[in-house]
Amino acid sequence: MKNRTAMLSLLAAGSLWGITVALSKLALGWLDPSTLTAMRFLVAMPVLALIGRRGLRDALTLRVFLSGTVGYGAQMLIQNIGIEHTSVSHGAIIVGALPVVVALVTAALGRGASRPTLWVGYAVALFGVVLVAKGGGGGASTFGDTLVLLSVILSGVFMAMQPAVLRGKDAAAVTAVQFLGGAAVSAPLALMHGLPSAPATAGPLFAFLALALVGTVLPFWLFAYGQARVSPELAGAFVNLEPLVGAIVGWVAFSNPVGAPQIVGALAVVAGILVSLTPPQLIAPLQRLPLSARR
């Protein structure tokens, strides 16, 4: 039951993250990247601190704080700058490489899983991401795409290290302290731009509020909860939902091009997630069969 709850938490987190690139793109019409990063963390942090208030004492450590400065602060700042210079669909799709980065990092640390289905699932999902990417989108640039990719690498390293940081601590409390670290990186840069003026229309304001609450508090909390209960590479598989949902948002809300390759790619992403989640006990009997029986 506990593992099922963790899976549902990861499923919800990956789906909610799918709308964050679009919300960030809209909010960047009002705020610069550093201000958006700082305000996103400063709005979300008190909510998570309230939720995890009983575990705040244990979470208030230098290790947790510093992990947030890199894993959230630097990573999100770089991502926002990249999103500002690329399209919604490209930004969301590049994030699809995150599970593979997580798997490679955990493998390099000697903690990677050896299940063939896990790597097959990653390969299928990554193939789907590539197909979806063929649709491109208006406003994309190599500079923006490169920055988003760099943020993905930072996020992958952070995600692989996160279970050790979360061990024995409240997920909401740890995330709140890490958001404090993220704000400490981005706030000084934001202050250099001065206080933001009022938005010209209500759209960017609503986009920011949705980003800070629905796109930050809920998914980060849910993902931290699930990640504390499953392996890093398994948790990373659910991040494949982000480019899928993001691409759909780009197609529907931002009129990014869509065709047969993108539809097949979206289905491949879903198939890859399902394959990577296949329990080992379902594969073991097949592996014990002689080759002639497998045909």
Describe the structure.
This protein has 295 residues and is mainly alpha-helical. It has one domain. It is 77% helix and 0% strand. It has 16 helices and no strands.
Question: Mind describing the biggest β-sheet?
Answer: none
Rg (CA only): 19 Å
Q: How much helical structure, as a percent, in the residues?
A: over 70%
> Helical stretch count?
16
Q: Roughly how many Å apart are the termini?
A: 36 Å
N-to-C SSE string, H for helix and E for strand = HHHHHHHHHHHHHHHH
| Coarse morphology | globular
Give the helix/strand class: mainly alpha
- Give the low-pLDDT segments: 282-295
Residue fraction in strands: under 5%
State mean pLDDT (0 to 100 scale). 82
Number of strands: 0
Q: What order do the helices and strands come in, and which of them pair?
A:
Layout: H1 2-17, H2 20-27, H3 33-51, H4 56-59, H5 62-84, H6 88-94, H7 98-108, H8 116-133, H9 142-166, H10 171-192, H11 202-227, H12 232-237, H13 241-253, H14 260-276, H15 280-287, H16 291-294
Tell me briefly what this model is.
The chain has 295 residues and is mainly α. The chain has helices spanning 2-17, 20-27, 33-51, 56-59, 62-84, 88-94, 98-108, 116-133, 142-166, 171-192, 202-227, 232-237, 241-253, 260-276, 280-287, 291-294.
